[in-house]
Structures are given as structure tokens and as C-alpha cells.
Design a protein that fits this description.
Length: 196
């Protein structure tokens, strides 16, 4: 019997913990941003007087002169800690809490599409597969009923539609060189790498 998704009481894990992706050597990734979201996030950070770092994440085609992609198709909003964790928009200083008791997002109404979609990953007719790093997935199941995830699925579909047109292209990934100090020696130098 499939469960209905709900956030775990007091959890803010998805705004704190960043993952190594696609493998440790590429370093930790940030919050995915579509190119059309980058300027808006930069303006929000200015308005809230929050320092942010945005790095490229995915590119397509090849620019022979720079030995990198011809076009950046995704950016990433990096965490504030040296180990890559903690979104800069997560309000960990005030006593305000979200409805389920987690820390507040300072830009909740205007948060990036990838935050709106999380933790939905894949949907079919009857169920949704969740990201396995979500605390609900870890505690219960990474397959849930589709109801209660309508807005997440709309955001997910917008992100997918944005990337679908690039499927036939050469893909580049950006290595961030960010992670726990103990694994620094395994990290690739920061920059673009052709995705095999
Ligand atoms: S989506 Fe998952 S990881 Fe994020 S706050 Fe909810 S339960 Fe926690
Ligand atoms: S922008 Fe908001 S919702 Fe997204 S990771 Fe940061 S704090 Fe969380």
C-alpha cells in the first residue's frame, strides 16, 4: 500500500545537505538553476543582502577555443559552507519555522524550480518516485501516491521540458571542486569535463 508524501517533522535536509554528483571526483553540486532563473536569483540575493555563488553545471556543444561547452544549459546555486552544504537562502538564524517545523526559506514563494519539484524525480500513472536522499524516502519509501505532489510534478515537468530538446547534444559537466576536507585529494580541478 503506497503512502502519501509529507515532510518529516523539523526536517530541512534538502536545503542543507548537498550531494556529490555524478561521482565524488566531480565535487558537491548546488541547487539546480535553469539559465532563465539565474538573473532572478541574483536579484533576490541582492534584495535580501545575501551573498551567493552561482557556478555553471551543465553545458552542450563544444567551443574549441575554450575547450568547454558552446552553451551553458544549467547553473547551480552553491552552499555556503566550505564542505558545500547549507543553501544561502536557508534562514537558520531566526526562530521562524516552516509549517512542518523546518528552517524557513527566505525566498520560499520565489524559490527555484528544482526546489519546487523536490523530492519528486519520476512519475507514472499512479505513483511518484522520490529522490532517495529525501528523509521521507529514507524513513518510509521512495515510491508514493501521486496526490499531494501536484505542484512538485508541475515544476518537474517544466524542468524536463527544458532539457528534452538537448538530448542529442554533446554534454559537458562542471566539476565544482567542493567537498569535505578529507576527500579534497580525490576532487577534479574546478572546470568543465566532457560527460561520457
Ligand atoms: S522534502 Fe524530504 S528532505 Fe526535504 S524537508 Fe521534506 S522530508 Fe526533509
Ligand atoms: S532556495 Fe530555499 S527551498 Fe531552495 S534549497 Fe535554498 S532554502 Fe531550500
Amino acid at each position: 500500500m503506497l503512502k502519501e508524501f509529507h515532510c518529516i517533522q523539523d526536517c530541512s535536509d534538502c536545503c542543507i545537505n548537498r550531494q556529490y554528483y555524478p561521482s565524488i571526483d566531480y565535487g558537491k553540486i548546488g541547487v539546480l538553476l535553469l539559465p532563465q532563473e539565474k538573473k532572478r536569483l541574483e536579484n533576490l540575493a541582492k534584495a535580501y543582502k545575501i551573498n551567493i555563488t552561482i557556478l555553471p553545471r551543465l553545458g552542450i556543444g563544444t567551443n574549441k577555443k575554450s575547450n568547454g561547452p558552446r552553451q551553458v544549459i544549467a547553473y547551480q546555486l552553491m552552499g555556503t559552507n566550505t564542505d558545500g552544504n547549507y543553501c544561502p537562502f536557508l534562514d537558520i538564524k531566526s526562530n521562524n519555522r516552516s509549517p512542518h517545523g523546518g528552517f524557513n526559506c527566505a525566498i520560499y514563494v520565489e524559490r527555484p524550480l528544482s526546489c519546487q519539484a523536490y523530492p519528486a524525480l519520476i512519475e507514472n500513472n499512479t505513483e511518484v518516485e522520490l529522490d532517495c536522499n529525501c528523509k521521507f524516502s529514507c524513513q518510509y519509501s521512495n515510491h508514493v501516491k501521486k496526490n499531494l505532489l501536484e505542484s512538485e510534478l508541475i515544476a518537474l515537468s517544466t524542468i524536463r521540458n527544458n532539457f528534452d530538446r538537448f538530448t542529442q547534444q554533446t554534454i559537458w559537466r562542471y566539476a565544482t571542486h567542493i567537498g569535505e576536507e578529507s576527500i579534497t585529494k580525490f576532487l577534479l580541478p574546478r572546470g568543465w569535463y566532457l560527460h561520457e
